[in-house]
Amino acid sequence: MADPMRIRAQAAAGKATVRVLMAHEMESGQRKDPAGKIIPAWFIQEVTASHNGKQVFSAEWGPAVAKNPFLQFIIKGAKAGDKIVVNWKDNRGDSRTDEATVS
């Protein structure tokens, strides 16, 4: 399983800014190894986020996203103590779910 995501959520003025750093190789499928063989594609396809159990963010990604992607979004109405859960799933079927508390 992949390393944990680093999630930071900070509340200010009735909203929370959520920052997520995901540990993933994000291989495009277009590079070759030293022997000249194509390295198979391996990338995050789906990303979702929820605020206190309600989905607030959803994205579909492709192979053009960089290694260890960074994501930032804002949730209106979030306050300190609320729970943020972020989930991703890649094209090999691996997935990761992590959570953070808004500070």
DSSP strand tally: 7
Strand content: over 45%
The N- to C-terminal Cα distance equals 28 Å
Mean pLDDT: 94
Structural class based on helices, strands and sheet pairing: mainly beta
Shape: elongated
CATH-assigned fold name: Immunoglobulin-like
Supply Rg: 16 Å
Q: Domains counted in the coordinates: how many?
A: 1
Task: State the helicity in percent bands.
Answer: under 10%
Description:
It is a single chain. The strands form two sheets. Strands 4-3-6-7 form a four-stranded antiparallel sheet, with no helix packed on it. A three-stranded antiparallel sheet has the order 1-2-5, with no helix packed on it. The two termini are 28 Å apart. The protein is elongated, with a radius of gyration of 16 Å. The model has no long low-confidence stretch (mean pLDDT 94). By secondary structure, the chain is an all-beta fold. The chain has no helices and seven strands. It has a single domain (6-101), classed as Immunoglobulin-like (Sandwich). A hairpin with a 4-residue loop joins strand 6 and strand 7.
Quick summary of this structure?
This protein is mainly beta and 103 residues long. The chain is 0% helix and 50% strand.
